[in-house]
Amino acid sequence: MSEPIEVDIFADPGLPSRLVERFLDWVAQDGRYSFRHDRQQIPLRDDGTLDLESVRGWSQEHGVDATVIVTEIPRTAGHRPKMTAMHPADSLVIISLPALGWFNLTKRLRGVILQSLDVAVRSDGTEDELPDLDCGVVHTQGSGSEESYYVASPWWWSGRARLVLGMVRTNEPLATAPKLSGAFAAASATGAFGIFFSSIWKMADALPTWRLGLISVMTIVVMVGWLTVGNGLWESRHSTNSLREARMYNASTLVTLAASVSLLYLALFLGIFTAALVVIDASFMTETIGRQSSVRNYLNIAWLSASMGTVAGALGSSFDSDVDLRELTHGRRQMMRYWEKSEG
């Protein structure tokens, strides 16, 4: 039996590294490949492309047969987001995690790594037909001994939508919400007034459901807008060197913040609703609003109070630390790669 091919996997810190660890737990050491995982932030060149020379240097130190890069940096070929690129001449595979989308990432990454390696380590660098991969459509770049391949979605628009969702996933909005604990504390303090002021009870009882819903949307939009502008998270065309990339980065930032703020809003709503059930006596509410109270009244009070609190929490709100802010979005993390490179 031939010796397994030794493969180094270099993965960005965060979600890419965690997913690679899950992949290694699943694949173990099979008969074809022997994997080694290095948690490394992949450096960037000045033009925003991956610094592959540095990665090749890392691989040469270990003397491996093939190299896999798993990065959170979005990569495109024109309008097409690249899921994976395969360079048979260098036995190199580059996987852009955001292009794999939001769902079933562990399974998708597993298939992409193994199928891409089968292409990248083949002995013949040129073939008459393109390799067949399940994850998308294979395209050719270069020619002759330098011929390489990349995989993109069959439809560029759905691929770009999946790329933006994948960027949101790597931003990890569930982890972002706790970083707004200061804003949440201000929102809770303001929202609590809705429990003790009868005028808010009457207003909540008088407002129709559609208006309460509209107020909720408006408050979330206000907080997302404040966090984006106030913390300098909006990417300009000059910062990304491309209007299309700036739109993509900004879309992922807005969706990430909207998801995080919505989670805080839901937590605030549930907290106020529970407190209202404990504090407000049903008979006293009936007397105050002039008709028989019900659970719906408690829900409406919590709904309106959560919106009030969110607006108050938005004013002057920021993230709990500069570290949290620097690690929040793709644009911020990409700038950190430049700073670290210039300081190094």
Characteristics of this structure?
344 residues, 2 domains, Collagenase (Catalytic Domain), 56% helix, alpha/beta, 15 helices, eight-stranded mixed beta sheet
Describe the structure in your own words.
The chain has 344 residues and is an alpha/beta fold. The protein folds into two domains: 5-155, Collagenase (Catalytic Domain) (3-Layer(aba) Sandwich); 172-343, no CATH class. Helix content is 56%, strand content 13%. The protein is built from 15 helices and eight strands. It has helices spanning 15-27, 52-62, 105-120, 156-171, 173-176, 181-191, 193-196, 198-206, 209-230, 237-240, 243-279, 282-289, 295-314, 322-326, 330-343; strands at residues 5-11, 33-39, 66-71, 76-77, 80-87, 92-96, 137-141, 148-152. Strands 1, 2, 3, 4, 5, 6, 7 and 8 form an eight-stranded mixed beta sheet that branches. Strand 7 (137-141) and strand 8 (148-152) form a beta hairpin. Helix 8 (198-206) crosses helix 13. It is elongated, with a radius of gyration of 25 Å. The relative contact order is 0.12.
